[in-house]
Write a structure and sequence with these properties.
Blueprint: E1 3-8, H1 13-23, E2 31-38, E3 41-48, H2 54-60, E4 70-76, E5 91-92, E6 98-106, H3 109-118, H4 130-141, H5 146-154, E7 159-167, E8 174-179, E9 184-188, E10 191-195, E11 207-210, E12 215-220, E13 223-228, E14 233-234, E15 237-239, H6 256-262, H7 264-272, H8 291-295, E16 299-304, H9 306-323, E17 326-331, H10 332-335, E18 346-352, H11 358-369, E19 373-378, H12 384-388, E20 391-394, H13 407-427, H14 432-453, H15 456-465, E21 471-476, H16 480-495, E22 498-503, E23 520-524, H17 531-543, E24 547-553, E25 565-569, H18 577-595
Parallel strand pairs: 16-17, 16-18, 18-19, 19-20, 21-22, 21-23, 23-24, 24-25
Antiparallel strand pairs: 1-4, 1-10, 2-3, 2-4, 5-6, 6-7, 7-8, 8-12, 9-10, 9-11, 11-15, 12-13, 13-14
The chain binds fructose -6-phosphate.
Amino acid sequence: MCGIIGVVGSADALKILLDGLERLEYRGYDSAGVALVRAGETWRARTATGTASVASLRDECASAPEGFVSGIGHTRWATHGAPETVNAHPHLDCSGHVAIIHNGIVENHGPLQAELEARGHRFTSVTDSEVLAHLIEEGRADGLELLDAVRASLLVVRGAFALAAVDATEPNVIVAARRISPLVVGTAKGATFLASDVPAILDRADSFYAVNDDEIVRLGPEGFRAVDLDGVPVRLRQLAIDWDLETAQKGGHDDYMIKEINEQPDALRTTLLDRRRDDGTITFDELRVADEELRDVRRVVIVAAGTSHHAALVAKYALERWAHVSVEVDISSEYRYRDPVVEVGTLVIAVSQSGETIDTIQAMREAKRRGARVVAVANVVDSSLAREADAVIYTRAGLEVSVASTKAYVAQVAALELLALRLAQLRATLPAPDVEAHLLGLRAVGALVSRALGRRAGVEAVAGALAGAHDFFFIGRHVGYPTALEGALKFKEITYLHAEGYPAGELKHGPLALIEPGVVVVAIATDPALHEKMLSNLSEVKARGASVVAVATDDDDQIDAVADFILRVPATEPLFSPMVDIVPLQLFAYAMARGLGRNVDRPRNLAKTVTVE
Ligand code: F6R
């Protein structure tokens, strides 16, 4: 998704912008640009399509004049208008003095553009964002300071945005604003910074502040001040940031994805840290919901997207089994457009790694509007979801950079299962020794994940043997089903090969027609209770010529009869198995994708933080 960076008051302005944009690359983008500003002069460089990398923008910037101390930069992920240079940000007003960058969508840009054109403004791009430059231009022409000109424009635009504006007639000032899309401000001696997220300015700023919805910030070399839409001063909340730059880098690995896959045991350990009091009570420090309220929950609805949705599906099995509560799992983008029923006792859980996924934020808002209590399960601290929910449980997986989510997924499953055990305690649906045993089991998962990671070479050999295959079905039963969905998602998004996840029992209801020689069926066959049924399913696909890859436990001596390839995993309690069984599937997807020369960290067409619907 688009990335924003800004700096005011540094002799290193251009370098800061370009370095920052590089650190925002993981968000996904198809064009990039910067604008530098000083009294009477706005200098701009942009690149797009094919050449869209910050490296090519650096080349473009080689001719930048010296002496600028302020500027803004942007990586764009096209929504309105093709990924071409004319549509790359920053966009200028008619005078060429005002430059803006924008992340999000201006929903009413059509009528606004028509009105602006009728008043004589000339548009040079096919973007929704450019209206902002011209609206600000009008405010400036009316004699407003840049801060008030931005504020006035926000009163007429609808939609989601993080926005930054500069004006060569009011140099050494950046005005930024936020509605839904994330934005942070950083300060250091003599310079002030702005970014979509902290890593972009981590090594430059000493202190960091979160901008909230409908807040407008004026940045100068000496610091910043913020107002709300009415112009009333507001204080920005300081963020507690404990990342170092190393955390945001690859740490010696070829790419972020394999680094993050390998960090899963740590992610699990950290997620589970300090969650049990001495008396055995499960506790979430950050969860601000009264015990009575959790105990009296009658129905749980979980909303999430993509990989987070798969973690939610796993949680359904745990919540139903341990806490005896009825659970519905919904895709966030569907939830708000139905007529979801929220009754007394409905607890909505919104799950998101980034905490910025617009679909999930909007689903949460819809649930709140209908009277539900909402608990967010988020990885990014102080993210929009975390702030807006009634309560939050942090997954503590650490910064996840690779677009394909891995360590955040296992952390989500662990955090949700912990919540299921807490509900079981409160509702007395499990005897205390059973809760204790499950807690111990959950704590042991990290070590099992480490063992599964140690088998990477074996997974790579299977991937090598299947090079050239194009069609993959991932099947599973019980919690093996969400594992199959997640295995297929990981596989398709980084290999660009066709992969589908199915409940194994559904094969005979349609997809079996597609099974023929050349098709690969990847089966999650680790559940002893459903093993026989899975063996029958595999016999069916094998009889039709498919190649079978089975994820099977170390002690399984029956699987050889039906599987061509076996990915062995250590056995565990079925409800914990998704965190272990996903490991060979992540490694399998990774090995296949690398074999095909794919960019695993930045798969085509995808973005890490999805802030448009
Ligand atoms: C896939 C993946 C996506 C995200 C989805 C939701 O590997 O990462 O499917 O899971 O876009 O993102 P969050 O969890 O940030 O809400």
